[in-house]
Design the sequence.
């Protein structure tokens, strides 16, 4: 999917909501555990109930890998279900991969070609030659970790590199890489005050913002500082939506929570 | 496996060789492509031919993931084959994962519990709370990226954070984390001169050293600066060994290349 197509979907749906599919067997309704593939059945129900309110879904790959081959099958079925039934949805493999040259190309093939995701999250620590292999894929995005929403973000990301925080150095340098127009960035919502400075460095890039909801960010503050003319934001919510209920009504409750966020987004977009 | 058991194996085999299983279907002998699981058949032959010369094997997870469910099955079969037939071997999942809290725990479970690897490589960018969940697993090691062997290492890792290179800050800070005795570090061999300084910060830690062989590092220089009283080094070679031949003799040729390295290691250990 192109950036332009994503923006069109956002305008059409009046939503820049991304729903994180972090499926934990200990948290989903117990009656699903009797089905053959509880993870896929859960995802299918969540997707069917919320697809008109969200522009994007983001399976967190760890939650699938933890179940080995079985988990990988659930992931394949989930992305195939999305691509077949809701091709307008922008899909993100939240994998946070990062390795050099030929290995990076292998990871890119895994997510862009084998699984047919629109984008994948990537870590910057190994530098340019660990990210450029991802950027070569046409109409695919690479979402680079810049500033994350966890406590550990202060260990290295906000450390000063010759007077400038490391995450800003990541933003600046990566903009010089080949095919950098295919970059988006992960920026945590728990630090809304940083968005103004981030927008000075990457005024046009899309930002994937986790940390609204369960991690405690504030949607309006993020939009005030982080939105650009093409919206430029994908706000992720995972647990706050998908685990709104663990009863028989889980999909309805997920829709209700997604609708609350989409309503807020529509109000912000109208201003 | 404990660090002590690893050191015993190194002394016994007179080898600190790790063989990287970066299995690329375009590079393995073509007759293997007719088998049901070419990746596993290749690994099995390489392992059978070299297990007495190496103390460790390191599947590069990207090369398996690129084949989806099929690749994941090959990975499962490979690690199960190692654990059943050569339990004295130290196994490394070269996955370079890195994510927060509960997601990190999921990745740790995937590699330590589901697949039963002895260790996994992890990226430091997200900080303490992305690494500590891995460190909680007893008799398992977390191998943190410090200084990698690629060109992109100079983009961020060697940048000065208040007068100190970022990779040194990673080494220092991580030593303060809970269960830091379960840490090892990835340090690229292409920069042997750095090993002396690294040993000032982590005198006792094991270092996993890629970049000897195909990437051009020098074994003796690395050992001169990097070895400690418990050896403290695992030297990885991937392509230089496993792709020594792509004919019917590929396993014999791999053994020959592994033996060359092991001979050098034995000579160094005797000094």
Sequence:
């Amino acid at each position: 999917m192109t950036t332009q197509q994503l923006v069109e979907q956002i305008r059409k749906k009046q939503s820049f909501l991304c729903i994180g599919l972090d499926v934990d067997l200990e948290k989903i309704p117990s009656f699903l555990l009797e089905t053959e593939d509880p993870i896929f059945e859960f995802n299918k129900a969540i997707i069917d109930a919320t697809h008109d309110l969200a522009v994007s879904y983001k399976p967190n790959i760890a939650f699938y890998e933890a179940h080995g081959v079985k988990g990988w099958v659930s992931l394949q079925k989930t992305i195939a279900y999305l691509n077949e039934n809701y091709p307008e949805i922008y899909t993100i493999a939240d994998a946070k991969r990062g390795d050099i040259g030929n290995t990076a190309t292998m990871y890119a093939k895994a997510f862009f070609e084998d699984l047919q995701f629109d984008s994948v999250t990537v870590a910057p620590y190994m530098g340019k030659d660990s990210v450029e292999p991802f950027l070569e894929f046409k109409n695919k995005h690479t979402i680079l970790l810049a500033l994350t929403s966890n406590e550990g973000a202060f260990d290295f990301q906000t450390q000063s590199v010759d007077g400038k925080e490391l995450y800003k150095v990541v933003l600046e340098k990566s903009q010089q890489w080949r095919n950098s127009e295919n970059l988006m960035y992960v920026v945590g919502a728990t630090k809304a005050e940083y968005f103004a400075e981030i927008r000075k460095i990457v005024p046009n890039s899309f930002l994937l913002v986790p940390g609204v909801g369960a991690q405690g960010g504030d949607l309006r503050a993020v939009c005030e500082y982080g939105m650009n003319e093409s919206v430029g934001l994908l706000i992720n919510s995972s647990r706050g939506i998908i685990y709104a209920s663990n009863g028989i009504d889980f999909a309805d409750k997920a829709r209700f929570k997604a609708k609350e966020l989409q309503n807020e987004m529509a109000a912000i977009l109208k201003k």
User: Anything to note?
Assistant: Chain A has a mean pLDDT of 95. Strands of chain A lie at 17-21, 56-59, 90-97, 119-122, 141-147, 160-161, 164-165, 183-187, 207-209, 233-237. The longest helix of chain A spans residues 250-270.
